Amino acid sequence: MTSPADPPERDTAPEGRRLLAVTACPTGIAHTYMAAEKLAQAAQELGYGMKVETQGSIGAENVLSDAEIREADGIIVAADKDVDLSRFAGKRVLSVGVAEGIRHPERLIRDVLSAPVHRGDGAGAGTGAGDGAFAGAGGGGRERGTVYKALMNGVSYMIPFVVVGGLLISVSLALGGRTTPQGIVFDSSFWQTVNDIGAIGFALMIPVLSGYIAYAVGDRPALVPGMVGGWIASHGELYDSKAGAGFIGAIATGFLAGYLVVWIKKVRVPEFVRPIMPIIVIPIVATTTLGLFFVYVIGRPIAWVFEHLTSWLGGLTGTSAALLGVVLGLMIAFDMGGPVNKTAFLFGAGLVSKNPEIMGMCAAAIPVPPLGQGLATLLRRGLFSKQEQETGAAALFMGFFGITEGAIPFAAARPARVIPANMCGGAVAGAIAGLAAVADNVPHGGPIVAVLGAVDGVPMFFVAIAVGTVVTALMTVTLMTVGARPAPTRGATPPAAPAPAVEAPAGAGLPAGGPDGSALSGHLTVRTVRPRLAAHGKEAAIREMAGLLAASGHVDDVDGLVAAALAREEMGTTGLGEEIAIPHAKTDAVSAPVVGFARSEGIEWGALDGTKARLIFMIAVPSAAAGDEHLRILAMLSRKLMDPGFRERLLSAEADAGALAGILREVQ
Q1: Nearest partner of 637 among 2, 185, 34, 101, judged by Cα
Q2: Tag placement on the chain: N or C end, fewer CB within 10 Å?
Q3: Which helix (H) or strand (E) holds 56?
């Protein structure tokens, strides 16, 4: 794909100065390319040579070479995600948010020539998100983005460990396991070895989550303390607890390690110490401090909670089976391997020989979180990314084998929505199993124990799991949808019903290039162009645009498309400034890529420059085609829409779909 910001022909400034830039945003799409285009244009107008590297979802483009970096007089990093600055050591580096690259490119070009020299040790220009402050970026909303990005960074690195570990354990249980009163054992050393390898993957899952959260916050020096902190969190024996702190503890240690490193970087040290700070001093000090703090300060309360929960559960054994099942189900699903989960599991496992019905309640709740999250990705695929859909398929497999941790990636990414949904499903499953007196004779859970003959009351056991799974899936989808569709404020204009697609009379106003007025590689036609939107609010506009795209014949589920577009808005506004909005979605609600365009009197879209959206494009692509084609369309639009003359022609054109489509054919 052509770079969105190739160096201008005039590659040297009058003073012989050369500038470089890197742009990136969390989603790696429109804002990345808009900032690149703005910086390149401003540099050309000011007479400076500039090359811009874009780090989008499609990967790094127009990559800066070592020779170009050596010759550069200054480097602008306009990014809302981690950018490795180590290659810029010894150069003046100005690190800001991507919004600044769009809004104030001229100011950045002036300021970079007096920016601090990046020394490669976290001093000077800083190291991206880990600095916690970006010049001129406005700290208010920046910190929230840093926390979210760091959490997603940890989750993305953790997922392969969850999948590999879980699937290896599942395969070994299925092909080589048998039930005994002590649990599922292996007759073959081969399958025992496969199970052990999978267990290693699971053991690394929590440290990796913690380590890469820390890395996103504090850069490379934070990786070791983050991983060691995660290991401590997952091994309760270090602080006299039978259960570790689980993924919730790992999230805590990740952020603690990251921000501890950020704080240590700010400490002034002698010049001769600075070279060894990032590789020796910072990792050792941060790791030791965090480890001791967790063991002696945080670990003790965790052990206390574990002990008292166990005692409390012991006092519930005389209550009704349904109530005990609800409590055990809530605990099993809460932290999926953490102290609360382990308390319930070990309580049930300890009574297997005396009261197997208690283990039956636990066994029914254990698979509900991964099965429920996997089912949710099937019910509403448009609400989940492609990676989440793949993880959902693995979670279904792990749930069958009683591996609750298969739901951790979903819970770590959206704890406020996923954990309550998991708990509700687990409580329902536990209650049904308790009422039906389902008994599990081995300390393990999930459908696999019934398949291997360890469960008494198999039909109701499967009913309990099925109902709990459905409850979790429906609650997850509902909470995600509610979060993506905020209720309109009192007095707001209700969403307008989609108006009929505008059809141009035969031969009237059509561009010369094609009988359907196609543009943007054929993805936009006269049928998907509307001269004026009836909607007055963002949500209503997205609904109306989805109805417009349906005229293409490529939309299978209008509501699904709307939900996916609103979910994308929740990640960050698609209002790009300059009176432009480009809502977009990757969803199976469409069968082929399709683009729509409409004009508006002005809709508040949360744009970076505060302008209301008057030029609105909507892009929808199937999940299977969500890679290069999606990004290519966005990049083409972003580049062309930076041309004020092009925007003005769209705004001033007559109210005719064919005429507008003709102008849009200029987008290449």
Answers
A1: 34
A2: C
A3: strand 49-56
Residues assigned a catalytic role: 25, 584
**CA torsion angle for 23, 28, 29, 35 (degrees, to 10)?**
-10
CA 76, 627, 549 angle in degrees (round to 5)? Answer: 110
The token pair that represents 666 in the structure block = 């200029």
Pairing of strands 49-56, 18-24: parallel
Tell which phi-psi region holds residue 62, choosing left (phi > 0), alpha (psi between -120 and 50) or beta.
left
- Which tokens go with 28? 């790696």
Pairing of strands 177-180, 594-603: unpaired
Which segment of 98-112, 496-510, 602-616 scores lowest on mean pLDDT?
A: 496-510
85 three-class SS: coil
Structure tokens given for 276: 């060894």
DSSP-assigned letter for residue 519: B
The pLDDT, as a whole number, for residue 318 is 57
Angle at the Cα of 514 (from 513 to 516), degrees rounded to 5? 140
Contact present, 107 and 126 (Cβ < 8 Å)? no
CA-closest candidate to residue 347, choices 318, 321, 323, 313? 313
pLDDT value at position 628? 57
Three-state DSSP string of 92-128: EEEEECHHHHHHCHHHHHHHHCCCCECCCCCCCCCCH
Structure token pair of residue 482: 């509610």
- Cβ pair 49, 113 in contact under 8 A: no
* Nearest CA among 501, 497, 602, 582 for reference residue 544: 497
Rounded Cα gap, residues 143 and 146, in angstroms: 5
- Torsion sign over Cα 210, 216, 218, 224: positive
Q: What is the mean pLDDT of residues 566-576?
A: 81
pLDDT for the residue 668 = 63
Tens digits of per-residue pLDDT, 135-161? 333 333 333 456 777 877 787 788 788
Give pTM, 2 decimals.
Answer: 0.51
Helical ranges in 273-413 per DSSP H: 282-293, 299-314, 321-335, 339-350, 356-365, 368-379, 386-400, 408-413
Q: What are the angstrom distances between the C-alpha of 524 and each of 311, 408, 589?
A: 65, 40, 17
Helix boundaries (H) for 456-526: 458-484
Looking at the chain, the number of H-run helices and the number of E-run strands are 24, 15
Distance CA 328, CA 582 (A): 47
Query: For residue 48, which of 109, 1, 117 has the smallest C-alpha distance?
Result: 109
Please name every residue paired with 529 in a beta bridge, in sequence order, or none if there are none: 597
Q: What is the pLDDT of residues 375-388, one digit of tens each?
A: 999 988 777 766 77
* CA–CA distances in Å: residue 89 to residues 126, 151, 340: 11, 27, 46
Report, in angstroms and rounded to the nearest whole number, the Rg of the chain calculated over CA atoms: 28
pLDDT reading at 655 higher than 60: yes
Beta strands in 170-271 (DSSP E): 177-180, 183-186
Neighbours of 58 (CB within 10 A): 18
**Amino acid 392: pLDDT:** 87
**Confidence class of residue 365 from pLDDT cuts 50, 70 and 90?**
very high
pLDDT at 289: 92
Tokens 């300021």 — which residue?
111
Please check whether residue 253 is in contact with residue 230, taking contact to mean a CB–CB distance below 8 angstroms.
yes
Q: What are phi and psi of 86, to 5 degrees?
A: -60, -30
Q: Fill in the DSSP letter of residue 590.
A: B
- Supply the pLDDT for residue 508: 34
Looking at residues 331-340, what average pLDDT do you find?
Answer: 82
Gap between the Cα atoms of 272 and 269, Å rounded: 8
Residue among 202, 131, 111 nearest 165 (CA): 202
| DSSP secondary structure string for all residues of 541-584 | HHHHHHHHHHTTT-BS-HHHHHHHHHHHHHHS--EEETTEE--E
